[in-house]
Design brief:
The complex is a heterodimer of chains A (274) and B (233). Chain A has 274 residues and is α/β, with parallel strands linked by helices. Chain A is 42% helix and 22% strand. Chain A has two domains: 134 residues, D-Maltodextrin-Binding Protein, domain 2 (3-Layer(aba) Sandwich), CATH 3.40.190; 111 residues, D-Maltodextrin-Binding Protein, domain 2 (3-Layer(aba) Sandwich), CATH 3.40.190. In chain A, strands 1, 2, 3, 4, 7, 8, 9 and 12 form an eight-stranded mixed beta sheet that branches. A two-stranded parallel sheet of chain A has the order 5-6. In chain A, helix 7 links the parallel strand 5 and strand 6. Chain A starts with a helix and ends in a 5-residue tail after the last strand. The radius of gyration of chain B is 21 Å and the shape is globular. Classes of the chains: A alpha/beta (274), B mainly alpha (233). At the A-B interface, helix 1, strand 2 and helix 8 of A face helix 2 and helix 10 of B.
Chain lengths: 274, 233
């Protein structure tokens, strides 16, 4: 019996010493649903700590695809969304799920592929022509397949090119951007990626090259939206608005502008353009 | 791509240098799983005891039901819990989605059938005379129950260790209902999934080492228990 008491004492002590208490700051945490590109690139690690320090709001980052993030906003499972699918964002706002959408930053999508470039798309300025050649060559193309912002744009581009992608060359991964880049590396495949994630991962991707960039259709804009307090009155709307103000403030925009990986800028401020 | 040795070496240096983020992740894993096992063990063992000691209609069905539940994938538990706890779900008002509490709940659901199934086998193996003796000596039923449980304590410890092993290594449910939030709901397994997706294999391996060491300790204690059990018999 003494044994059992000893064991349970050890268990309880371990539990108390090991479990970190949930954030006990004065302010309610802000649940930020965002895309994997902003989180995996490391941007939020630069951006959020100064905000948390200045306002006392802890920010809980939930990194998912844009589609899932919008869904979470609609269900009231997040307070604020940082996403990149302009049309869907507008639809989200006009359906009154969200309010106060603001532009935050932009970069662009790029098409990357193996340095052997069997489809000969290197240097093309026309993204649709590039997709056409990839489809003709029947070379592996790795699609996100997860209804993320990047996936939405990719499907839009295929539609614009008049192609219904399918067949053994078209691989739908259902994974985040980083994972898809790794898959493209392993499969000698092409894929569409945002430039930020590409730059963040480039050092580990020795077989891949940036092949197509600069098409107007590849413009990638990030917006931030507060989930509507009319729909969910106990949502952390004040916190969400503070975060929106801060991200679009001079200080927030400067951090975005100065965030680089290996000397290259990943995101460009856009809040002035509102 | 970095080689396996490079990644492993980097992993070890991360562990030894006391990388704050890494250790926060490890402590979240242990905190959540310890809580889950602590809250689940009493009701699960009571259930196991009831199944082992009372004759009632549907008892065998219940036992096989718990055995079936052993095979439920963690993601299914995660998805169910997600839908229940979502703001738009029936328990949305509790605001539990993407909290440690949700992870604890998920792991409780996962560990319950293991504790019941293994606890049931252990209690069944107890000599019926232990209970009868205790009872006829005037012990109240509750007291008699504790006597029986004490009799098969090693088997029950083994059940607890097995259940703990399952939930600390579980990824699907924690990812879904925890949301993998840094310093809050990011535990060992969801961190490994994330670091792998980012191509940061060193941290993934470091965390893998922690889990392996843990598995080693658990298995070692399990075999020591079995040994002591065999000595007693």
């Amino acid at each position: 019996m003494r044994n059992a008491i000893g064991v349970s004492l050890i268990v309880v002590t371990l539990m108390l010493s090991l479990s970190t208490p949930p954030a006990t700051a004065a302010q309610r945490p802000i649940r930020l649903a965002t895309t994997t590109s902003t989180d995996n690139s490391g941007l939020l690690r630069q951006l959020l700590p100064p905000f948390e320090e200045q306002t006392g709001y802890p920010v809980h980052v939930i990194a998912v695809g844009t589609g899932k993030a919008l869904r979470m906003g609609r269900d009231g499972d997040a307070d604020v969304l940082l996403v990149h699918a302009y049309e869907d964002e507008m639809e989200f706002v006009s359906a009154r799920y969200g309010v106060n959408r603001r532009d935050v930053m932009y970069n662009d999508f790029v098409i990357i592929g193996p340095h052997t470039d069997g489809a000969k798309i290197r240097g093309l300025k026309d993204a649709l022509a590039a997709l056409n050649r990839i489809q003709k060559a029947q070379l592996p193309f790795v699609s996100r397949g997860d209804d993320s912002g990047t996936h939405k744009r990719e499907r839009w581009l295929w539609r614009q090119a008049g192609i219904t992608p399918g067949g053994s060359w078209y691989r739908e991964a259902g994974q985040g951007m980083g994972k898809v880049l790794q898959m493209a590396e392993e499969l000698d495949g092409y894929t569409l990626t945002d430039r930020g994630t590409w730059l963040a991962h480039k050092p580990t991707l020795t077989h891949l090259l940036l092949l197509v960039a600069g098409d107007q259709r590849l413009y990638n804009r990030y917006g931030i939206i507060a989930v509507s307090p009319q729909r969910y009155e106990d949502i952390n709307y004040r916190g969400a608005m503070r975060l929106i103000e801060w991200l679009t403030s001079q200080q927030g925009q400067d951090i975005i502008k100065n965030f680089t990986i290996n000397g290259e800028t990943l995101f460009f401020p856009l809040a002035g353009a509102n | 791509m970095e080689s396996l040795t490079d990644a492993s070496l980097k992993a070890l240096s991360l562990l030894v240098s006391g990388d704050a983020e890494l250790w926060a992740i490890i402590s979240i894993s242990f905190g959540v799983s310890f809580q889950a096992i602590l809250y689940t063990t009493p009701p699960a063992l009571l259930t196991a005891y009831a199944l082992a000691h009372f004759e009632f209609p549907g008892r065998r069905t219940l036992v096989s039901l718990f055995h079936t539940l052993l095979a439920v994938p963690a993601v299914v538990v995660g998805l169910t819990l997600y839908l229940l706890l979502s703001r738009s779900g029936p328990f949305g008002d509790l605001k539990l989605l993407f909290t440690q509490t949700a992870m604890v709940l998920g792991q409780m659901v996962l560990s319950f059938p293991i504790l019941v199934a293994m606890g049931h086998s252990a209690l069944q193996s107890a000599d019926q005379r232990v209970w009868e003796t205790a009872y006829t000596l005037g012990a109240p039923p509750l007291r008699a129950m504790f006597t029986v449980m004490h009799e098969v304590r090693y088997g029950l410890f083994a059940a607890v260790i097995a259940a703990f092993g399952r939930i600390i290594a579980e990824v699907g449910c924690s990812m879904m209902v925890g949301g993998n939030i840094l310093n809050y709901t990011r535990n060992i397994t969801t961190a490994i999934a994330l670091e792998t997706s980012k191509g940061q294999f060193a941290q993934g391996i470091a965390l893998g080492i922690v889990l392996l060491v843990l598995a080693l300790v658990l298995n070692y204690s399990l075999s020591t228990l079995r040994h002591r059990l065999a000595m007693q018999a």
